Amino acid sequence: MTGHARMKRHAIRGIQWTGMSTLVTSAFQYVQVAVLTRFLSPSDFGLMAMAMVVIGIVQAFNDMGISNAVIQRQDTTRDRLSSLFWLEIAAGLGLFAFTLAITPLTVGFYNEPALLWVMIWISTIFLVTPPGQLYLVLLQRDLRFKDLAIIDISATIVSTIVMFVAAFAGLGVMALVLGQIVYFGVRSLQLVVVGLPHWRPHLHFRASDLAGYIGFGMYQMGERTVTYLAINAIKFIIGRYLGAEVLGLYYVAYQIIVYPVMRISTVIMTVSFPILAKFQDSDDLLRRGYLHMSRLISFSMFPVLAVVFVAAPVFVPMLMGPGWEGVTPIFQILCTVALFKVLGSTTVPTYLSRGRADLGFVWNLVVAVVNAVVFYLLAGYGIQVLVLAFAAISLLQFVVMQTITGTMIGLTWRAYLGAMALNTTKSVVVGVLAYLAWQAGLSLGLGDLALLVAITVVSLMVYMAMALSFNRKYLRELWGLLVPGAET
Predict the structure, then answer these.
(1) What is the Cα–Cα distance from 87 to 217, expressed in whole angstroms?
(2) Euclidean distance between the first and final Cα of the chain, in Å?
(3) What is the pTM of this model?
(4) 78-110 and 115-122 are packed helices; what angle lies between their axes, rounded to 10 degrees?
(5) Running DSSP on this structure, what letter comes out for residue 444?
(6) Tell me: the pLDDT tens digits for 34-76?
(7) Could you tell me which of 57, 380, 367 has the C-alpha nearest to residue 225?
(8) CB-based burial label for 83 (10 Å; 0-12, 13-18, 19+)
(9) Contacts of 471 (CB under 8 A, 6+ apart)
(10) For the CA atoms of 10, 12, 18, 21, what is the dihedral angle to 10 degrees?
(11) Which of 82, 131, 152, 197 is most exposed, with minimal Cβ within 10 Å?
(12) Where are the alpha helices (DSSP H) in 345-447?
């Protein structure tokens, strides 16, 4: 089997399992929203968003940035792994103490006294996560995506049950907090159980073992921090100037469209990075892998985003119930943000495979500063203007990073856009027909459920028909990769 074929085979296998995990956990995400929005208020979700913005920044330092260094470097020894393991344990304890220390500042910044206990409880994530963190990296490095998928799904199921019970018991925002703690705790425990038979740490720590990892990791920590700030600066501004209720509306809209797509982006990065790292010296293989990922994204994600954008006025109110009407326009704008985020997901594993963690750090630092300034200046114009600005900046970020990454591996814009042109055209057709189906259903007086079913059925049938007509060769290729022995 050639290097290109082997790379595609590993990628497809990884996407099968990691994709299944993402589909299942995203489905649970929608179930969580559908249930919890009927027991919790927008302010409850807003408080949780305030806490998670801060926690997310601190989490960028959770593994000292060495996770991707372990994958990128192919020479990790047992002693080095033990040193890295104890480094992560120490980092978790330090971050727990740091989060408690900044809690009063966080409460003061948002002027939300109810945030105090939310922050105190949620900080325990940093105690339960570190034991499993290095095992997570080792499983990714060894392409054990089946194990990772099972762990993620089971942790999601357990945490969802805990959230529902707590919400039914009237615990309010603490239902969301407990769900997060249980998710990270259950996941970490399973990672340790699965990983221990293959590698166990011993009482060894030497600073010299960290050479080469910390340098790469510092850029990774920096990149994660500024990337997170670039994405979540808008939450800081909304929470500070528009309040918990408006932030709750944005947070829920983000959770049901951008978050699932970002998880898909994580699938792409998780699967492709360890594979691309093995072919980091071949521009040709990197280009082929890059175009294959881009083609798969356009084939699978473009039509979905087109349909959910059109169906949002029907879909969102049905999902969330009364009292959440303000989510729909935010959701539709965030569909474009999701599009640019998933397109940009191919750039990160590509430049990381070349060891260029510094590139992502510098660029995302620029984006974070621009976002903070723009969102601060626009805060007085309301939530929809802020979200529109977020969409525009996301487009700019994608264009710049695609240009830089394409230059790095010798990929032209013409070749890149050409790989996605057919799928883009089909998705536009599907979006237009979904809109016409919506209008026809309204004129016939269909109820919301019947209207949503009509839009979905029309969109699915049209896209399947076009895929069979224009993508038959590509479908055979995918089928051959998915089913061993079917490449005929």
Answers:
(1) 12
(2) 16
(3) 0.79
(4) 180
(5) T
(6) 899 999 999 999 999 999 988 888 877 766 656 556 655 555 6
(7) 57
(8) buried
(9) 299, 422, 423
(10) -150
(11) 197
(12) 347-353, 357-378, 383-409, 413-443
The count of C-alpha atoms lying within 13 angstroms of the C-alpha of 128, restricted to the half-sphere facing its C-beta, is: 17
Angle at 202 between CA 196 and CA 204, to 5 degrees: 145
Find the DSSP H helices in 243-326.
244-278, 283-300, 302-320
How many Cβ atoms sit within 10 Å of the Cβ of residue 168?
Answer: 11
Matching residue, tokens 């990270």: 184
Residue owning tokens 């208020």: 41
CB 239 within 8 A of CB 111: no
Q: Write the pLDDT tens digit of every residue in 208-220.
A: 556 656 555 566 6
Q: Give yes or no for a contact between 140 and 21, defined as CB atoms under 8 angstroms apart.
A: no
Which tokens hold the place of 442?
A: 């309204």
Query: DSSP letters along 142-172, please?
Result: TT-HHHHHHHHHHHHHHHHHHHHHHHHTT-T
CA distance 331 to 257: 7
Q: Which of 34, 1, 13, 2 is nearest to 252 (CA)?
A: 34
Rounded CA separation 286/292 (Å) = 10
Residue written as tokens 């009063």? 104
Distance (Å, whole) CA 410 – CA 424? 23
Distance CA 420, CA 474 (A): 12
Phi/psi of residue 150, nearest 5 degrees: -65, -40
Quick one: CA dihedral 31, 34, 36, 41, positive or negative?
positive
Contacts of 304 (CB under 8 A, 6+ apart): none
Average pLDDT, the chain: 82
**Token couple for 90:** 């120490």
- For residue 51, give the nearest of 266, 262, 246, 247 by alpha carbon: 247
The answer to whether residue 429 scores a pLDDT higher than 90 is yes
Residue 14 contacts residue 292 (beta carbons within 8 Å): no
* The two three-digit tokens of residue 12, written as one number: 């497809």
Look up tokens 């769900």; give the residue. 179
